[in-house]
Amino acid sequence: MLRSIKDLHGCTVSAFDGDIGTVDQVYFDDEAWGVRYLVVETGNWLNDRRVLISPYSVRHAKPSSNVVQVNLTQQQVRDSPGVDTHKPVSRQHEVEYLRHYNYPTYWGGPNLWGMGACPAFDPPDTATGLAPEPPLWAGQPAAQPPADVHLHSTDEVHGDHIEAADGSIGHVSGFIYDDTAWAIRYLCVDTRNWWPGGKEVLIATRWIGLVDWLASTVSTTLTREAIMNSPAYDDSIPIHRSYEAALHAYYGKDGYWSDAGPASLDTHTRTDAP
Question: What CATH architecture is 2-152?
Answer without folding.
Answer: Roll (2.30)
